[in-house]
Amino acid sequence: MGVSFEARQFHGLGGAQDQEELYELAARMQVLRPDRAAARLGWSIERTDQAVRLLAEAKLLQPLPGDECAFRPVPPRAAAYRRLAPLQEQIQRMERRSREIQAELVGFHRAREEALGVACDTDTDTDADSAATGESGEGFGWAAGRETLRMLIGEEALQEEITAALSSCARDVLLARPGTGWWATTMQHCAEASIGSLQRRDVDVRVIQHHAARFDPATRKFAAALSDGGGAVRTLAGPFEGVILIDRQVAIVPLEEAHLAVVVHQPGLVRFMVEVFERTWRVAKDFAGQCRTTEVSKLVSDVQGAIIQLLAEGKTDEVIARRIGVSVRTCRHHIAKIYDELGARSRFQLGVMIARSGLLEQVQNGPHGCEAGAVRSLTAT
Prior knowledge:
The chain is an alpha+beta fold. The protein folds into four domains: 17-74, Arc Repressor Mutant, subunit A (Orthogonal Bundle), CATH 1.10.10; 78-145, no CATH class; 149-287, Endonuclease, Chain A (2-Layer Sandwich), CATH 3.30.870; 293-376, Arc Repressor Mutant, subunit A, CATH 1.10.10.10. The chain has helices at 17-29, 34-41, 45-57, 76-104, 106-116, 127-133, 142-145, 154-168, 182-200, 217-228, 267-283, 293-312, 317-324, 328-342, 347-357, 359-365, 369-376, and strands at residues 61-64, 67-73, 149-153, 172-176, 204-210, 232-236, 243-246, 250-255, 260-264, 285-287. The strands form two sheets. Strands 3-9-8-7-4-5-6-10 form an eight-stranded mixed sheet, sandwiched between helices. The protein has a two-stranded antiparallel sheet with strand order 1-2. Helix 8 (154-168) packs parallel to helix 9 and helix 12 crosses helix 16 (359-365). The relative contact order is 0.08. Residues 1-15, 119-146, 293-298 and 366-381 have low confidence and may be disordered.
């Protein structure tokens, strides 16, 4: 049986000076309008339109929503993923057919084993089978029959993937939702829209967020609704990375800077992420939508402890703010308090004083030390 790949062929762009020059201009301007680009480059409208068309076909330019006369540049890596999408879909169809064929042959495998008088094991092959087919025993497992990693590009693709995953979920949803940004916003929207359906199906939903989320009205409302329906929200001071785990079989992991996400089916990777989530969950603090006054000082202390750790690692204010889920302004307010408490006048002096004071050891070994250790596994380097 022949295999026909019908992935669309694009014009070759390698060494195409017009396309490269126009793309460079688009990258600088961020919003490209062909008429303005033509005037700026001294090109004719026809020449500019031709270059725009080729770049659009190569997925390196895409029209702005609601304005087909304006384009924004797409990062080359993201463009490559988009161009590979048709081929990936065809590969997936072939993989599904491969699994169907394997399933069709299970009965014959059993008959053969019984005829030979050996134990029946449909999950593995004998050495003779492997040699005859050119496949190892592992070849008929998950690795050969399913796509282990798949890339999602943009908020719309992520939202569609999460919504579909939540609609088919049967056991549990484990969500680590740090801070703000496109991933957190998209995830919150999907979770809020699906919470009623999940609760009606008795799906266990657990969410980990930053302590800062306790002071957000929308998060309070979500936590209260989730708790009332049998789910749970807990919060952490320290940094952690985002992930959503569906039925402990699928993980969706965001790549914040690139507006990309990865769907993971590989059992070992998913199992590891579930274990890290569970470990982090055990040291996080319950949150049912109410933040008592008596808890505030302890939460602030935990947040400052996380900041001290990140300061000791040499992180910038912007990175620290993102990692603990607060604004840069709030983060700098906390850092200023730490400066005042230690009497430091510079970043270098602050680092020396943190090291000499034993404060870092107190953070790691004190009341929230377990928390800090747990989230370290989820922390980006």
